[in-house]
Sequence to fold (498 residues):
Amino acid sequence: MTRGKWSGLGERIADFFELPKEVVLDLPQVSLIGNGFLRIENHRGIVEYLPDVIRVSASRGEMTIRGRKLVIRSILPEEILVSGEILSIELSNWGEF
Amino acid sequence: MLLQRIRNYLQGYVLILVRGPHLERFVNLALAHGLRLWDVCRVGPDMLSCKTGVRDFKHLRPVLSKARCQVRVKRRAGLAFLTGRALRRPVFFVGLTALVCLLYVLSGFIWFVEIRGARTVPRTELGVALRKVGVYPGRRKAAVNVRYAEEELVRMVPDMAWAGLRIRGTVAILDVVEKTMPPEAKSEVRDIVAARDGIIERIRVFKGYARVVEGQTVHQGDLLITALPSEPDGAGRGAAPAGAAAGEVEARVWYHATSSALFTTIEWHRTGRSASSFRFRFGNKEFSLGRKPKFASSVISTHRRQWFPWRNGRHYVEWIRHRYDEVVQTKKMVGRAEAIRTAAAQAGQEIEKLLARRPAIRVLSRRQNLKFDADKVTVSVTIEAIENIGVATPPAGAQGR
Fold:
């Protein structure tokens, strides 16, 4: 409850000052280029990696990328770049703002 | 990304195979230790392959033991490893470096000289002139002053109007434009000959000796008035001049023009169907895009779009569109009288064209004949006229007499 309250405050501050929310609220930012490349910024590591599924941990929950022949092109503390045939992206156990 | 790749190549990297039950943990621990991994690919249920820098690989050991994984190096790549190999085979790499340096040095010289466009100017003369201005095989390219060489070549070879010198790689190419000399002066013309067949009506000799008499039939090229003093003739008047023969030779001549007209004419009509085919030219290479339409008959119009203007108005890149408009033919019957009129008008026009080129001609009579065939009529027009048929020729010596 307390967390939700503070997050709400952070959101309002970000809105008021027009600040990027992913920075202020520590949220992941996902960019998808066609269905071949996916960039996840602000991640918390890999939970599971298989050729057809990658689960990535983020600040508010977990992100599941499903596809075929998935390869982690680059992995850095702030960013993961995935290539392959991406079919879906799911968010699970996602906390509220 | 590109800079990253270049850095990876320069610093060297290894492709490793990691085997263990907790591969995700290995990746996360590597991240936590600040080690860079890329091209991470799952290759088996308990194995993944990835690339890492040489420096990071040295710090991978604690991460592997924490994640209970084993590692095997599959491939080494990058400049660091190449250098290592080079240090192990110094002679080979010294030889390679020497070869590259030698090629570089040799490419700074002219090894071939090519002459283009020389037809009458001897190539040996051009070769000597080129050598004098410093263009010859074995000469350093940087030592050649192209503009100076071009100006000097034009000065040194009198039969050359323009010289263009360019150096492409190790080849010096000389483009030559030769002078076109004017025709020989009229004062050297000696004899007067018949320009066409005819019957001599009147001959007036101003200089030289007459070789024909009035009423004589002459053919094209026959000698009419000569200036040769070695052949005195009774018809000549006085001593022959040293220069040209002169005079007027009027003769009765005939001109013919024939034209036919068909009793059926063919007209072409556009059907309205059209198609296009495209071609793309890049330099001297042309690529065809699309097929030609399968019209039995068509009118083709070409449209060109050009880019990158080159020298002499040529464009390097060109987009060519051929538009095909289908046409069909229809036959139309023409009456006899109309066909005669058409053929006579065409023949008349031809005659008028002939007469227009000869303003001094005097027309005596005009005759018209008709000839009928199964499918056409032929009209012949004949003109009888008086005309000066004498024309000057080059000197007798020039003709090999």
User: Anything to note?
Assistant: Chain A touches chain B at residues 45-51, 71-77 (CB under 8 Å). The CA atoms of residues 51 and 69 of chain A lie 5 Å apart. Strands of chain A lie at 29-33, 37-41, 46-50, 53-57, 62-75, 79-92.
